[in-house]
Design brief:
Elements: H1 3-13, E1 18-24, H2 33-43, E2 47-51, H3 62-73, H4 78-89, E3 96-99, H5 102-108, H6 110-119, E4 124-126, H7 136-144, E5 148-150, E6 152-153, H8 159-168, E7 173-176, H9 190-203, E8 209-212, H10 218-227, E9 231-234, H11 236-244, H12 249-264
Parallel strand pairs: 1-2, 1-9, 2-3, 3-4, 4-5, 6-7, 7-8, 8-9
Length: 269
């Protein structure tokens, strides 16, 4: 059983949902990312998702696009991100997932990327622009290094394709809560709660279900966990803090920790 699967199993036994916290590696600088991760984990994040900055992040909204640009301008490279993961894992026993795009992975080469990821103790990888139908070699390379492959499903995903995605996923299924890109929302729509209930029969007993895109407040977390999700993914809420307090690292750490604590308090099932 993978480290991610173990985490979900432990949380389920405690009747808690998982808080998966996303930050962009290298934003505002690579040096600060491990300390920001410290604050996020201390605040209550059960799983850490690190964005690997990329020049064309098609699944991300303006908030995370801007974070990616800041990280790239700070000199953050794929190998630097893996080094950051290794630093974080040397201090925390928390699963770490890298969220990237096809280009950086295939440019490095599948074998080299996953070997490097394994040596840095990466637990899982998310590649939003990789169709499950074209992921055979990718999945083999990831599995060879015991790294989870997290696929995404969207509101438009057919039931037939959903079955295929669930069968090919490991760690958890990333359910996109709404059409469009990432970004904080004011409320969880009824259509999102209905989507969770539609997807649950395909994931229950097979793989944990985590919901992302637009999740930013404790009430969002509570409603999604109550609807049946096993976890939530929160990104823009944390990235906004990093942008708001750029230049004041101490304030970033404090706000990240306090926000994570409030979100985690909303996860009991």
């Amino acid at each position: 059983m993978s480290r991610i699967s173990e985490t979900f199993k432990t949380l389920k036994a405690r009747k808690e949902g998982a808080l998966i916290g996303y930050i962009m590696a290298g934003d505002p600088t690579p040096k600060l990312t491990p300390k920001i991760a410290d604050a996020l984990i201390i605040g209550g994040a059960d799983i850490l998702e690190l964005g690997l900055p990329f020049s064309d992040p098609i699944a991300d909204g303006p908030t995370i696009q801007a974070a990616s640009l800041r990280a790239l301008n700070a000199g953050t490279t794929p190998k630097a991100v893996l080094g950051i993961v290794k630093q974080i894992k040397g201090k925390h026993d928390v699963p770490v997932i890298v969220m990237t795009y096809c280009n950086p992975v295939f440019k490095m080469g599948l074998q080299e990327f996953f070997c490097a990821a394994k040596s840095s103790f990466v637990d899982g990888v998310i590649v939003p622009d990789l169709p499950v139908e074209e992921a055979g070699d990718y999945r083999k390379a990831a599995a060879a290094q015991n790294i989870d492959t997290v696929f995404l499903a969207a509101p438009s995903t057919s039931n037939e394709r959903l079955s295929k995605i669930v069968a090919c996923s490991s760690g958890f299924l990333y359910l996109i809560s709404h059409f469009g890109v990432t970004g904080a929302k004011t409320a969880v729509e009824e259509s999102t709660l209905s989507l969770v209930k539609r997807v649950m029969p395909y994931t229950t007993g097979r793989i944990p279900l985590a919901v992302g895109f637009g999740v930013s407040k404790p009430e969002h977390v509570k409603s999604l966990i109550t609807a049946g999700a096993d976890g939530v993914i929160v990104g823009s809420a944390f990235v906004n803090i990093m942008a708001k307090y750029a230049g004041d690292a101490a304030k970033i750490y404090t706000e990240i920790e306090e926000t994570a604590k409030k979100l985690k308090e909303a996860t009991p099932q």
